[in-house]
Design goal:
By secondary structure, the protein is α/β, with parallel strands linked by helices. 36% of the residues lie in helices and 26% in strands. The protein has 4 helices and 7 strands, in the order βαβαβαββββα. A 7-stranded mixed β-sheet has the order 1-7-6-5-2-3-4, with helices on both faces. The longest helix is centred in the C-terminal third of the chain and has 17 residues.
């Protein structure tokens, strides 16, 4: 297990995770900052990878915010939802979970990076259960 303390470390771990040619990539974040770095990470995900994304928004989310996410993620299996606060990135080789959102925040926070297949499989199973159950906006 590795502790990820800064946003820079988080984005580096995210980049490593997708550059290892995973067969799947599951992402959940309360909001996502779609900047140049995030776009480059998304482009590095292999096209054949089963990619699922949950984007949580608060109850005051505007139609403009929702439309932006729907437009950007249209080529992925994604759901924009309210009342979702999960923060994770899972591939077949790594699971990154914890408090850090994909928002480029400099707030004090940390996440944990796991490489144990057993841990990855358990987290992936829970993510898929919720992903398949939840209704998008």
């Amino acid at each position: 297990m590795n502790v990820i303390k800064s946003n820079t470390e988080f984005l580096s771990a995210f980049t490593r995770a997708v550059k290892n040619k995973p067969s799947f990539v599951y992402i959940a974040s309360y909001k996502i900052r779609v900047d140049k770095k995030f776009k480059s990470i998304m482009l590095a995900i292999p096209q054949k990878a089963d990619t699922k994304i949950l984007i949580g928004l608060d109850l005051t989310a505007t139609k403009k915010q929702i439309s932006f996410y729907k437009s950007f993620f249209k080529d992925y299996d994604y759901k924009v939802v309210k009342k979702c606060h999960m923060k994770l990135i899972i591939t077949d080789k790594v699971a990154i979970i914890g408090g850090r959102n994909i928002t480029n925040s400099d707030w004090l926070d940390f996440s944990f990076e796991f490489t144990s297949k057993d841990v990855i499989n358990k987290i992936a199973k829970e993510f898929l259960r919720e992903f398949n159950k939840i209704k998008p906006l």
